[in-house]
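Need a sequence for this fold. Nothing fancy.
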């Protein structure tokens, strides 16, 4: 997997450079972020989910090894945060986001590069399973600690309009129906999906912020350790207890090891969270993930030994 991390890092660094290059057109990043999020990634998710051959046992194990550890971590962090008396409320919501939310761009792009089609599709399915929960957790945390209420209706509308969730649900519906997809449509969606891989990583790089003067070092380090190290350990332990298949174990460990979501910064800024801390968390975790994700993928072999 190390061999794949260098190209990934190079594409992320390309995004960093393009964001700061004087000749990059204004509006370039908003445009490619919109296209990637609303068109290319949904195409990739739909075609892979529609063709995924997954058993009931695999779905059960994948859910147990990704969603349950995420919920456990969110609850544990929420219980411990009041003990950090010097941490402002806005920063607490950013810690919750940083410890639980996965980067969809990073996850989908790297999974498609690293894994065989079955395992990559399971990673996509894991994201679809967990994204509703982590988005609700983020909104609840921001509402609790940032003083900007968001009712059930707003949360439901945000989830229903999420193209990642919609595309995966549509692909699952086609999969369950047993209807074959036309070959020309599959090839067209594959081409769009291939575009998503590169553009997603460029978007990740474009969103990195290197001014950490307003960040909180202790919160930054603790949150990153929870997300990149502790959560994968819990995921692989769950897979071992369940006797999950090799593909499910790989997908679960990879999902758990993903750095935090780049759009968490936007949510923190819009809903009164600690945006500078969130930006630092996204940048640090994305850079560390080049090392920690390959390490997390070795955990199943270490546990088996």
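Here you go.
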């Amino acid at each position: 997997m190390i061999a794949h991390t260098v190209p990934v890092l190079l594409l992320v660094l390309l995004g960093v450079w393009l964001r700061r290059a004087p000749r990059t057109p204004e509006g370039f990043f908003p445009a490619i972020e919109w296209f990637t999020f609303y068109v290319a990634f949904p195409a990739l998710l739909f075609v892979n989910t529609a063709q995924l051959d997954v058993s009931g046992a695999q779905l059960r194990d994948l859910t147990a090894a990704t969603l349950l550890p995420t919920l456990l971590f969110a609850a544990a962090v929420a219980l411990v945060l009041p003990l950090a008396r010097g941490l402002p409320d806005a920063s607490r919501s950013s810690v919750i986001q940083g410890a639980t939310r996965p980067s969809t761009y990073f996850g989908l792009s790297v999974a498609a590069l690293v894994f065989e089609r079955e395992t990559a599709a399971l990673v996509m399915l894991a994201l679809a399973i967990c994204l509703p929960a982590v988005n609700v957790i983020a909104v609840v945390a921001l509402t609790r600690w940032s003083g900007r209420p968001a009712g059930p209706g707003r949360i439901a509308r945000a989830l229903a309009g999420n193209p990642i969730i919609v595309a995966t649900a549509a692909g699952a519906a086609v999969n369950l129906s047993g209807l074959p997809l036309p070959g020309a449509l599959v090839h067209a969606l594959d081409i769009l999906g291939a575009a998503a891989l590169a553009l997603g990583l460029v978007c990740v790089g474009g969103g990195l912020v290197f001014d950490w003067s307003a960040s909180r070092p202790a919160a930054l380090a603790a949150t990153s350790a929870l997300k990149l190290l502790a959560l994968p350990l819990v995921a692989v332990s769950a897979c071992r207890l369940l006797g999950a298949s090799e593909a499910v174990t790989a997908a679960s460990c990879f999902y758990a090891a993903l750095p935090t979501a780049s759009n968490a910064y936007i949510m923190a800024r819009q809903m009164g969270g600690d945006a500078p801390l969130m930006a630092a968390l996204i940048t640090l975790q994305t850079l560390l993930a080049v090392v920690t994700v390959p390490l997390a993928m070795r955990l199943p072999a270490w546990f088996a030994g």
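For context: Residues 117-146 form the longest helix (30 residues).
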